[in-house]
Amino acid sequence: MYDVVLLTLGSERDAPGGCGSGGACCGGATGADTAPTSQTDTGQTDTGQTGSSQAETDTGQCATERPRVPVLACADALNARGARVETVTARSDAEIDAVLARLDGPARPDGLTWPDPDSKTRLVVATASDGQLRAVLRRLVKRYAPAPSKRPADLPGNRTLPDLPPVAVLPLDPARGGTHRDLAAQLGLPRDPAAVAAAVLDGTPRRLDLLRNDGGSVTLDGALLGAADDAGRPLHWRARVEVDDTILSDGAEPLLACAVGNAGGYATLNDVTLLTAPDPADGQVEVAVAVPVVVRAAWGRKRVRLEVRRARGRAVSVLPREGKVPYLDDGVEGELTRKRSWWVEPGAWAVWSS
After folding, report:
1. Where are the alpha helices (H) located in the chain, listed in sequence order?
2. Each residue's pLDDT tens digit, 234-259
3. What's the CA gap between 98 and 91, in Å, rounded?
């Protein structure tokens, strides 16, 4: 029988600002710049191009002192099936790492830390937001991604990290499966604690694409760049947006929004369709920019129409031309002040699915 760890990071109602929000709890954004890290020859970290608003923090304010009702119900369902269950509340990234270490495989001759494909330990992440799930996946990436100088021969050519261990998702707010389309709802994952327990013990891993970025973080659902004023009117901004070899904007014309989609969380904006068919398992990222275009009617009057340009590919970059560009990435707020690049890691992570 399996050992099952029920990992909770805390919920948005348990801490000011909320986990995975601008309050920067348990791996959320802080507004500080960080860089991607990976395993190195010395056990330290490799540092690459810096990004913004992706800092990881060790704070105590995020922790839920008592397990939430869905966590207790899931634990009861697992215990009833004979699983050995442990509930853990992580108050820092270091405590998340201590849980993830249980998923390590045997020592390798090359010295890399690698996940165990035959692990008898299974992980359930209780989430109050997609940002919390992302925080755990980011720690998995940092644990298992090898440094470029240590890239092993058995790593797939289109990937920078091995298959990450599957995780089960236990939504702490079942109502979010309705009007709020969180990632669990988009993927059709079970929300009932007993059904989540069944998926962990009887289900199969469903492999999904992961977006890494040069700011040191990951994206599971997508990112939406742009903002509105106090009256709800979208603000213009400029940026060069490229998808592989396709230029969606050269940075000279104003933009209203840019959506970077692995899944469909940011497919529409105010009834405007930005992304047409985002698929978290097709090995591509779909990107769209909304551009206001002035056209002249036959009778000479000018009007503005919204032009949506789209492209699909393996990588996307956004280079702001002026000031700061606000964005949401898996629901986490941030501001882009320099070039940000995302790239697809096909099938890199997985969820337990019934």
Report:
1. 69-80, 93-100, 130-144, 183-187, 193-202
2. 899 999 999 999 999 999 999 999 99
3. 11
